[in-house]
Amino acid sequence: MDLVEYQGKQYFERYGLPVPPGETADTVAEAEAAAERLGYPVVVKAQVQVGGRGKAGGVKVAYSRQEVAEHAGNILGMDIKGHVVRRLWIEAATDIAKEYYASFTLDRAAKLHLAMVSARGGVDIEQVVEEDPDAIARLHVNPLDGVTLQTLRELVDLAGLDLRAQEGAAEILAKLYDCYIEGDADLVEINPLVLTTDGQVRVLDAKVTLDDDAAFRHPEWAQIADLGQIDERERLAKSKGLQYIGLNGSVGIIANGAGLAMSTLDVVNQVGGAAANFLDIGGGADSDVMANALEVINTDPNVRVILVNIFGGIVRCDDIARGILAALERVDISSQIVLRLDGTNEAEARRIIAERSSEQILSEPTMLSAARRAVELAGTPGTPGRPGTLGTPGPRGGSSE
Ligand code: GDP
Ligand code: MN
Predict the structure, then answer these.
(1) Whose CA is nearest to atom 19 of ligand 1?
(2) Confidence of residue 357 (pLDDT cuts 50, 70, 90)
(3) Is 42 part of a structural domain of the chain?
(4) CA distance 178 to 182
(5) Cα 318 vs. chain centroid, distance in angstroms?
(6) Residue 310: which of 356, 349, 355 has the closest Cα?
(7) What would the pLDDT profile of 156-170 be if each residue is shown by its tens digit?
(8) Which of 132, 286, 291, 335 has an alpha carbon 20 to 30 Å from 56's alpha carbon atom?
(9) Which atom from ligand 1 is nearest to the alpha carbon of 20?
(10) How many domains does the chain divide into?
(11) Which atom of ligand 1 lies closest to the CA of 55?
(12) Containing structural domain, residue 286
């Protein structure tokens, strides 16, 4: 989970990092009110999940209420690299003497944590890496050992930070490491970390990526809601505990196992279609899971057909078949469903579907034939939905083979 700047700063604050005071604002009036409380000058900052906001005009210093209104009005609704700005962060402005860079992330190849510090901050760090790789001081940290303040002092010295910034920067790095480890982040990045004109070291930007696999340890993460940043479908899926990623095609996909779900996407592509999503229902596939999966896919207006691709191993195909039928009695699904069930108890599953099947469920014996059928159906615009016949026996007594 990627946090936007203000969420990252609020996360940093829990670990004692020095962040300037600020408030969120979703309207011009809220921005003005926040600025009045904070005092001038303030910085008006777009809250979107991309870097380079400054260059794009999404970060502006304002010296009066009028300037706040002007900048807030310009930045709200602005499109920054495909992200529309819906929220601002209004922050007490800082007098900057120097801009640095600092981060911790995981170096997967080295199987160690990696700290990076540079005296060339404020600019795109990838650019610094390219132009002047020596301008970045690196330190690998073994998670079993952690890192001492003394080592961090040496790191900021190696990076060439101004002498009067070094102690403050080392202390910030120590807290940043705690935040990274205890806060279960994959990345914590401060760009710029600044030396103020009066000799303080402050955090002016924050980029935090939380490790989703650690969410069970952090009930408080549920509070980190973000308006409009996450795909609506993904939000619903998440609330139902499904592994779902929204895509742009018209074939809704349900599969068990991430590998099979990805293969299904590939096969749909191969036969000329495009998947509307990735959805892995995992090991359990009872009627609840199926109903949730179908419901999530059904909220996507682009979906024309749903391809259910299940390989029965530990999970039994007959359970899946019953799950689908039960789910169809609970949720109104407007698309046709192409079903491929293979593996444990597949014969029994086919029998269950054939017995109860309506025009809505079409069984196919292989993944390839199922994908072909689905893509064919998706390609016929205006195929009428059949919400009235869900789960009820079709007039022709079944279309499966
Ligand atoms: P980014 O462009 O998305 O990385 O957004 P940043 O939060 O890093 O802001 C971009 C730049 O705006 C920074 O590198 C600073 O130069 C400038 N900036 C941000 N906050 C302040 C501030 O409080 N005072 C001043 N003078 N400049 C700021
Ligand atoms: Mn930045």
Answers:
(1) 204
(2) low
(3) yes
(4) 6
(5) 34
(6) 349
(7) 999 999 999 999 999
(8) 132
(9) 23
(10) 3
(11) 2
(12) 232-379
